[in-house]
Amino acid sequence: MEQVIVVGAGPVGLWLAAELRLGGVPVTVLEARTERDPHSKALTVHPRTLEVLAFRGIVDRFVADGRPLPDGHFALLDDRVDFRSLDTPFPFTLALAQARTEELLEEHAVAAGARVLRGHRVTGIAQDADGVDVQVAGPDGEERLRAAYVVGCDGTRSTVRAAAGIDFPGTGTTTWGWLCDAVLDEPPARPLNVSGPNGGVMVLPLPGGVHRLLGGDPDYVRAERPEDLTIEALRAKVARIAGTDFGMRDPRWISVFGNATHQAARYRSGRVLLAGDAAHMHFPAGGAGLNVGIQDATNLGWKLAAEVAGTAPEGLLNSYHAERHPVGADLLLITRAQTALVSAYTPEGQALRTLLSELIADVPEFSDNLAGRLSALAVAYPSADPEAHPLTGRRVPDLAFAGSDRTLFELLRDGRHVLLDLREEPGEPLGIPCHAAALAGSRPEWSTVRAALVRPDGHLAWAGEEKADDALGAAARQAVAATLR
User: Fold this and answer.
1) Model confidence over 142-168: pLDDT tens digits?
2) Which of 315, 317, 305, 313 is nearest to 478 (CA)?
3) Dihedral of CA 141/144/150/152: which sign?
4) Which residues contact 118 (CB under 8 A, 6 or more apart)?
5) 130 contacts 99 by C-beta, under 8 angstroms
6) For residue 341, what are the contacts with CB-CB under 8 A and spacing of at least 6?
7) Pairing with 68, which of 120, 160, 184, 469 sits 20 to 30 Å away (CA)?
8) CA-to-CA distance for 387 and 35, rounded, in angstroms?
């Protein structure tokens, strides 16, 4: 019997597999495709995802292959959201093709001990109180596997979700977008986006001497799916929007996609869980989907590992849905808002776009709020304890410590909780293993925190402000006991 079967070897499934292995759980990843998809739906890695990669020690591999951009677009508006003011070691988005992201994540998962089986298509599942039966069509024919838990990371058409009977409510398509990866004889000198009453187009360089053109136009504001695009039709669209077709030729990939928006009613049904596109489907505005999916997996990995090991406190695994479903709902809100703006081709819609673009440029607080939400650095999980410290549930920045070269992200490398003793003066020990060092640098919001417990996913589980050493130690031990058995 398998401990955990992950269905889908995209970025989310591969990252989840690595996180489970970090928790000591044997894991098998089943993927229907025999080879990695050469086409890259996603091109953007956001700051919080880079932080997640950093506190597992592999972010340098991604940054080395990508191109940092200090800002990001919101609905293709002329003025871009500035990430440089964000409190992170990675105040930028990273332009990196999904195919390369998947390659790096698979290397990481396999090195961690995950088993990845390609050419194995899951056709159905059935669960009972003790496990989950998984029907698989593989190279040697049909077979049945059994696992303690199954996680569907198998995309918007998730077989796992459907077989588990999890509803996927939402809305249908009302507008369409298009993309094309092609050679440009006359490319723009830098990444470009053009928008107006004739439509919008973004032009981005990709590896291999090709560019991606991504856009939409008034002809595609409709419910019915358009016919497949030819390169000739796409040239005409781009020229009408941008005044030139950039010498577009030799397309590698042309695709049309809609704005149908859905979210799984439950992220957990018994021994079956969902993450990534299997849990939320939306218009690919701003490249958020891959990032939110990886963050789903980061939240789920340590919790499911603790559940399998029998060390999880009651309700821990259920907290995955409680914490991540609202994040998915906010993702849908943001992508729907961007969809409305992207497809606002009327004079009134263009006026709204101009106004919001000016707000991004002229109101730093507005831009910063968007940057925090788009980057996922603003994600915070509510605490059930009304007496909890205000920082509880928030993402913890990469804290630096006095007299130490190690930062918090380095302390999170092994995927375990980290207890911090932040007292300026030596006092009685907390009575449990911890990293004892005062904070370095200016952290006003942390000025009253004298001890803190950081979860494996980098969010704050508990913070203590007790002045008496014995009271602080007792509180720390109680926090650890409530979090881990």
Assistant:
1) 999 999 999 999 999 999 999 999 999
2) 313
3) positive
4) 9, 31, 33, 34, 35
5) no
6) 74, 75, 76, 77, 349, 352, 353, 356
7) 184
8) 51
What is the chain's percent helix, strand, coil content, to nearest 5? 35, 25, 40
Coil/strand/helix, residue 94:
strand
Name the 3-class secondary structure at 82: strand
Q: State the DSSP code for 445.
A: G
pTM value? 0.96
Contacts of 176 (CB under 8 A, 6+ apart): 216, 220, 221, 222, 225, 226, 256, 257, 258, 259
Cβ count within 10 A of residue 34: 9
CA 98/CA 105 separation, integer angstroms: 10
Name the 3-class secondary structure at 476. Answer: helix
Phi, psi of 150 (to 5 degrees): -130, 135
Identity of the residue numbered 23: G
Please report the pLDDT score of residue 485 as a whole number.
63
How far the first Cα of the chain sits from its last, in Å, is 25
Euclidean distance between CA atoms 396 and 391, whole angstroms = 9
The DSSP letter of residue 431 is S
The Cα 425–Cα 438 span in angstroms is: 8
Amino acid, res. 388: A
Closest to 81 (Cα-Cα) out of 377, 449, 448, 436? 377
Question: Distance between CA 458 and CA 53 in Å, rounded?
Answer: 11
Q: State the Cα angle at 150 between 147 and 151, rounded to 5°.
A: 155
Residue 311's identity, in one-letter code, is T
CA dist., res. 157 & res. 162, Å (int): 8
User: What digits encode the pLDDT tens for the residues 104-126?
Assistant: 999 999 999 999 999 999 999 99
Nearest to 277 by CA among 396, 373, 185, 151: 151
Of 219, 221, 214, 174, the C-alpha closest to 194 is 214
Beta carbons of 109 and 18 less than 8 angstroms apart: yes
The answer to whether the beta carbons of residues 30 and 5 sit under 8 Å apart is yes
